[in-house]
Amino acid sequence: MPYFIAIANQKGGVAKTTTTVSLGGALAQSGKEVLLIDLDPQSDLTLSLGVSPGKARHAITDVLFNWATPASVSRETKVSGLDLIPSNPEMELAERFLPIRKNFEHILRNALDNAPLNYDFVIFDCPPALGAITTNALNAAQMLIIPTLPEFFSVHALRNVLGAYRRVRNKSNQNLVYRVLITMQDIRNRIHRDLSVQLKDNFSTSIFNTVIQIDTKLRESSVAGLPITHYNPQSRSADQYMALAAELIQNVQETIQQPARQSLL
């Protein structure tokens, strides 16, 4: 069975999609079979892997609205071991019409449960909102990764994401755990350094040791339609996402061996 991960934050511009594609590439580089699912109507993940959303005839909307199986709409990418279920313009309707459906919070989870996938990891790239789409992802996931910049407004927004996490965990997904990931850190910036220390102190075991620093190569990789691990394997960002993948794999193994008892802060 795959391990399901939702990457979400209510705030945009925190490297959510960059983390999805880069972590996916790093896991694939580590020998894992990975499926990325683009749940964002903006379709940035789809674009980042070289697929035009307007030309994606089969997309995650077919799973959410038309009862297609995830396997039937997935496609290979340029990276061996990394597959994609793209988003397309129809995702704009999801936030409006999903809540009309009975038990809408579990549509994605039921689709995945009813059609098992042969992957080690399935990663959801969520929209910058905490509505019906993100709720579906949180109910389907075993881990929530929250990318955050070490800046005041980004750190402040964490409370809303953690509020959504608590609601889902209390109501319907008791095994969901979370990890905070510091992204786009500028080590030359004193505020970035200070807030990074505060985040690690406050979140303790619920934050990744790996920190993703700011790197223009990440933007270039999106234009090239490749994860940073395959666009520029020698770059600092590639090394950091490979380190994140290794840390994640270790976290998952520990979680599976000893069911999480993460307290609701």
Quick synopsis:
The chain is an alpha/beta fold and 265 residues long.
What does this protein look like?
It contains twelve helices and seven strands. Helix 8 links the parallel strand 6 and strand 7. Strands 3-4-2-5-1-6-7 form a seven-stranded mixed beta sheet, with helices on both faces. By secondary structure, the chain is α/β, with parallel strands linked by helices. The C terminus is likely disordered. It has a single domain, classed as Rossmann fold (3-Layer(aba) Sandwich).
Search tags:
single chain; alpha/beta; Rossmann fold; disordered C terminus
Strands, total number: 7
Second CATH tier, the architecture: 3-Layer(aba) Sandwich
The pLDDT mean sits at: 93
**Proportion of residues in helical segments:** 40-55%
Low-confidence stretches: 260-265
Rg to the nearest angstrom?
Answer: 17 Å
- End-to-end separation: 29 Å
Number of helices: 12
What order do the helices and strands come in, and which of them pair?
Elements: E1 3-7, H1 16-29, E2 34-38, H2 44-48, H3 60-66, H4 70-73, E3 75-76, E4 82-85, H5 94-97, H6 107-114, E5 121-125, H7 132-140, E6 143-148, H8 152-171, E7 177-182, H9 190-203, H10 216-224, H11 228-231, H12 236-257
Helix pairs in contact: 1-12, 6-7
